[in-house]
């Protein structure tokens, strides 16, 4: 037998075989993450049963048994002794109030313009690869607040009424929620950074003032802050001097959130190795250039989850303004329960479900964007 008959030498590359089905795709993911062991399998089955027991009735109420159209409560009442599902016809009828509150109907176009400008400026600002970032940031942080203020409140030049004045007392719904949340988020971040730097300052007076401010606002419940800003603050002002109630709430919420933001940022500053500070000082950088160019970019990237978590908490805490007589989204929904036209057993459940969906969409969006930015900036420091 010759050598060529004893050995087979392949002259062509062997065809690539697909990976086993059990290790790829949805089946592979489930085997690896859900059914990798007996314990995980038991926990997965228990989790599926719990999820089914919670989700199935929700789907039954919100979709299957729901009423989608109608003129009054008669459409949403239980029929023939059956169960009453969600009354989405009631949400449809009250939808303008949930979005605009009691804002004058003929002036709603002004609110729509503010919503549109907010979205148009925010979306490119949130996209890392979008061009003209500096101009976009100036428009969003400087120009937009001024334009939104005059659009929402009105504008009078001399004796000429350019835009009719709309008192903040008639604002409500999602408008109030977004105004308080966005103002608090935008204003509390730079104030929190300044307080965090002040708390780590080597100047005793600056450090003491920062510590007192942070600990005071962190030690007081937000409800108390709202009561103080809305009820007690006018008592300490000179006679004849007053602030708009919404402005008082905005100040209280911003200061409260800034104290928590300061501690989040301080955690990021303390996580930066000492060598970064020493290297920046060795380059001859003074304090502010060192912070702006070297330290803060690293520190803020490290605490993105904490910052977004504070933003989400602030967004949800806007519902507390109801106790000082301001009707945000949740407050507007609760006030609609007094209308006998839509009074049904499912009205309250439907209203709160609608509020939960709206808040979940905003909070989930912020959470997912936070995860996206973490991956974009590699804050996990993968090796």
UniProtKB/TrEMBL annotation:
Domain of life where this protein originates: Bacteria
**Is Calcium found in the keyword set?**
no
Keyword Flavoprotein recorded: no
Database matches in Pfam families = BPD_transp_1
Q: How does it sit in the membrane?
A: Multi-pass membrane protein
One GO cellular component from the entry? ATP-binding cassette (ABC) transporter complex
Could you identify this protein by its name? Amino acid ABC transporter permease
């Amino acid at each position: 037998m010759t050598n060529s008959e004893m050995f087979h030498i392949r002259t062509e590359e062997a065809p690539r075989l697909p990976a086993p089905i059990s290790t790829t795709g949805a089946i592979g993911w489930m085997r690896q993450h859900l059914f990798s062991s007996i314990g995980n399998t038991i926990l997965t089955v228990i989790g599926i049963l719990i999820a089914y027991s919670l989700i199935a009735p929700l789907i039954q109420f919100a979709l299957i048994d729901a009423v989608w159209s109608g003129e009054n409560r008669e459409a949403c009442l239980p029929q023939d002794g059956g169960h009453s599902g969600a009354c989405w016809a009631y949400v449809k009828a009250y939808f303008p109030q949930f979005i605009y509150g009691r804002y004058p109907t003929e002036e709603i176009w002004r609110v729509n313009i503010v919503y549109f400008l907010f979205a148009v400026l925010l979306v490119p600002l949130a996209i890392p690869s979008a061009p003209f970032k500096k101009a976009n940031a100036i428009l969003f942080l400087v120009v937009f607040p001024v334009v939104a203020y005059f659009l929402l409140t009105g504008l009078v030049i001399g004796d000429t009424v350019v835009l009719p004045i709309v008192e903040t007392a008639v604002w409500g719904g999602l408008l109030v929620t977004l105004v308080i949340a966005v103002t608090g988020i935008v204003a509390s971040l730079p104030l929190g950074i300044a307080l965090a730097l002040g708390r780590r300052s080597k100047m005793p007076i600056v450090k003491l003032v920062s510590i007192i401010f942070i600990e005071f606002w962190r030690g007081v419940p937000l409800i108390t802050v709202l009561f103080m800003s809305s009820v007690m603050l006018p008592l300490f002002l000179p006679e004849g001097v007053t602030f708009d109630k919404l402005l008082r709430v905005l100040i209280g919420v911003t200061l409260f959130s800034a104290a928590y933001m300061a501690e989040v940022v301080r955690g990021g500053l303390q996580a930066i190795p000492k060598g970064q500070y020493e290297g920046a000082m060795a380059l001859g950088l003074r304090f502010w250039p060192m912070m702006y160019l070297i330290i803060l970019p690293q520190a803020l990237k490290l605490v993105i989850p904490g910052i977004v978590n504070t933003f989400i908490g602030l967004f949800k805490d806007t519902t507390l303004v109801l106790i000082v007589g301001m009707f945000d989204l949740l407050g507007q929904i609760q006030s609609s329960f007094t209308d006998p036209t839509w009074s049904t057993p499912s009205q309250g459940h439907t209203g709160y479900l609608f509020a939960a969906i709206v808040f979940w969409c905003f909070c989930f969006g912020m959470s997912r964007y936070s995860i996206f930015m973490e991956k974009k900036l590699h804050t996990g420091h993968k090796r």
